[in-house]
Amino acid sequence: MAVNRWNDEMLDQLADSVAALVQAFVQEHEENRQHRQEMQAWKRENDLRFNILLEEVRASNHRIDRLEDAQNS
């Protein structure tokens, strides 16, 4: 039965590979966090714009109702 022995070079390569994987994971995690923050900001902005437009539509409908009431009186 063959026994695999880890020499210093193999251990260094393993350590480098693990370090690279950890660095890639940390970078991807940070990119995902930034993306979530950007999406939350985008959603807040769009919600605000929607609410402003909704209020403008309601105000316009109210003016139309008043004009129709005035015409029918």
Looking at this protein, list some descriptive labels.
73 residues; single chain; mainly alpha; 1 helix; rod-shaped
Descriptive report:
The mean pLDDT is 94. By secondary structure, this protein is an all-alpha fold. The protein is built from one helix and no strands. The longest helix has 65 residues, at 8-72. The N and C termini lie far apart (104 Å). The chain is rod-shaped and about 100 Å long.
Number of helical elements = 1
What is the string of SSEs from the N terminus onward? H
Strand segment count: 0
Tell me the overall shape. rod-shaped
Oligomer: single chain
Residue-averaged pLDDT = 94
Helix content: over 70%
Taking pLDDT < 50 over at least 5 consecutive residues as the criterion, the unreliable ranges are none
Can you lay out the helices and strands and say which pair or pack?
Blueprint: H1 8-72
Task: Describe the structure concisely for a colleague.
The chain has one helix and no strands. By secondary structure, the protein is mostly helical.
